[in-house]
Amino acid sequence: MSEKSIKVVSEFETESAAQFVQKASSFESNILLKMDNKTANAKSIMGLISMMLTAGSEVVISATGNDSDKAIEELAAFLAR
Fold first, then answer.
1. pTM
2. C-alpha 54, offset from chain centre
């Protein structure tokens, strides 16, 4: 399992969540986002929306699978843009 802590740079609205889920779904790995005491499947739009990510939120992206390192790298870059 790989993981990385990242600070969300911009507001994370429904459109951003949909784009994030689409990018996460392109990976084979199981990917989770963790914030405070919440955990969501990165491939679930409802899970991400329920986390209520905002600019400045600190999240941990974790992934398990063959492409986990690439998944974390690309998803962290998405959140940091």
1. 0.91
2. 13
Q: Can you tell me which residue has the tokens 């507001």?
A: 11
Q: What is the DSSP string of the chain?
A: -EEEEEE--S---HHHHHHHHHHHHTSSSEEEEEETTEEEETT-HHHHHHHT--TT-EEEEEEESTTHHHHHHHHHHHHT-
Q: What is the pLDDT of residues 3-25, one digit of tens each?
A: 999 999 988 888 999 999 999 99
Question: pLDDT of 62-81, one tens digit each?
Answer: 999 999 999 999 999 999 88
What pairs with residue 5 in β-bridges? 60
For residues 39 and 66, what is the distance between their CA atoms, to the nearest angstrom?
21
Question: Are 42 and 17 spatial neighbours (Cβ–Cβ below 8 Å)?
Answer: no
For the chain, the domain total comes to 1
